[in-house]
């Protein structure tokens, strides 16, 4: 048992990024009083509607976490779809930096 595990009963609430019932049950078995998964939460003080900015105009967009288990889905559902759009290279050049970073990290 790790240090955090032994402290779980001392907290009133455990918030997790996700995991559903298996994660909730695991924390409760370690003594958590309450465990609540918060899926894709945001902070309304920093995430709120703003006036449109032409810099972000496009036919397709993606906002999400860049996590290893999602890379294949991003490639398949976003980049493959984007290549089917007219003017792909021009409109989606902002993705080229992200893609280059990905290639360099291998």
Q: What helical percentage do the residues reach?
A: 40-55%
Structural class: mainly alpha
What does the average pLDDT come to? 76
β content, as a range? 5-15%
Cα(first) to Cα(last) distance is 34 Å
- Contiguous helical run count: 5
Shape: elongated
Work out the number of β strands: 2
Unreliable runs: 90-106
Q: Biggest sheet, strands in spatial order?
A: 1-2
Radius of gyration, CA atoms, in whole angstroms: 20 Å
Order of helices and strands: HEHEHHH
- Mind summarizing the main beta sheet? 2 strands, parallel
Describe this structure in a few short sentences.
This protein is mainly α. The chain has helices spanning 3-7, 20-29, 71-82, 88-91, 93-104, and strands at residues 14-16, 35-37. 3% of the residues are buried.
